[in-house]
Amino acid sequence: MSRHYEVMVILDPTLDERQVAPTLENYLKVIRNSGGSVEKVDVWGRRRLAYEIKKHAEGIYAVLDLNSDPDAVKELDRQLSLQETVLRTKVVRRQLPRGAKKTAAKV
Amino acid sequence: MPKPYRPVRRKRNPLHAAGIEEVDWKDVALLRTFLSDRGKIRARRVTGLTPRQQREVAVAIKNAREMALLPYPTPKRGG
């Protein structure tokens, strides 16, 4: 079953910002190969971190909107977390509107 | 002795005022308004939110904290 996911990634700030999109694209193959689709890749760019992560004071933020199987997202998250250049990741299911929540759970 | 009269002042609901239905954990500017200057989440009697909204805001703030978008509470003065 395909679900909508939102994946936020914080990348090493020493990376060239132009490289970010191609690098992410490389990881997104996992999603595409499993029959999922990538709705949007939003690179926020360099941002100050609220606290240091691995001695870095800033990071390059990117938000990915995906439609994919749970397993594929899990694999994507695993692969991202193995990368040295990825400081942190977060996978969040999109919040459905209040009324739709119950009906979606039944399906 | 009569009870001292305490005026009940309803606070304006800040989410309704902003016209926001769903709290987005990526909306840092909005979530910051629910944090004290030390980074603590403001109590509901301060924010004037409904229980449900308060919960949603709290979860959103915690998500944002994990991604270093918002600070964790600091014991430091002025921090």
TrEMBL record, chain A:
Transmembrane segments annotated in the record for this chain: none
Cell wall biogenesis/degradation in keyword set: no
Keywords, alphabetical: Ribonucleoprotein, Ribosomal protein, RNA-binding, rRNA-binding
InterPro entries, sorted: Ribosomal_bS6, Ribosomal_bS6_CS, Ribosomal_bS6_sf, Ribosomal_S6_plastid/chlpt, Transl_elong_EF1B/ribsomal_bS6
CDD domains: bS6
Keyword RNA-binding: yes
Molecular function terms, GO-annotated: small ribosomal subunit rRNA binding; structural constituent of ribosome
Alphabetized Gene3D superfamilies for the sequence: 3.30.70.60
GO cellular component: cytoplasm; ribonucleoprotein complex; ribosome
GO biological process: translation
Pfam family, one: Ribosomal_S6
Free-text function comment from the UniProt entry: Binds together with bS18 to 16S ribosomal RNA.
Similarity remark: Belongs to the bacterial ribosomal protein bS6 family.
Listed name of the protein: Small ribosomal subunit protein bS6
TrEMBL record, chain B:
Subunit-level organization: Part of the 30S ribosomal subunit. Forms a tight heterodimer with protein bS6.
Single Gene Ontology BP annotation: translation
Gene3D superfamilies: Ribosomal protein S18
Keywords: Ribonucleoprotein, Ribosomal protein, RNA-binding, rRNA-binding
Function according to Swiss-Prot or TrEMBL: Binds as a heterodimer with protein bS6 to the central domain of the 16S rRNA, where it helps stabilize the platform of the 30S subunit.
Family: Belongs to the bacterial ribosomal protein bS18 family.
High-level lineage: Bacteria, Bacillati, Actinomycetota, Actinomycetes, Pseudonocardiales
Record PANTHER family: 30S RIBOSOMAL PROTEIN S18, SMALL RIBOSOMAL SUBUNIT PROTEIN BS18M
Keyword Ribosomal protein among UniProt keywords: yes
HAMAP family tied to this protein: Ribosomal_bS18
Any one annotated GO CC term: cytosolic small ribosomal subunit
Domain of life where this protein originates: Bacteria
GO MF: small ribosomal subunit rRNA binding; structural constituent of ribosome
SUPFAM superfamilies: Ribosomal protein S18
Name the UniProt record assigns to this protein: Small ribosomal subunit protein bS18
Statement: the UniProt record of this protein carries the keyword Ribosomal protein: yes
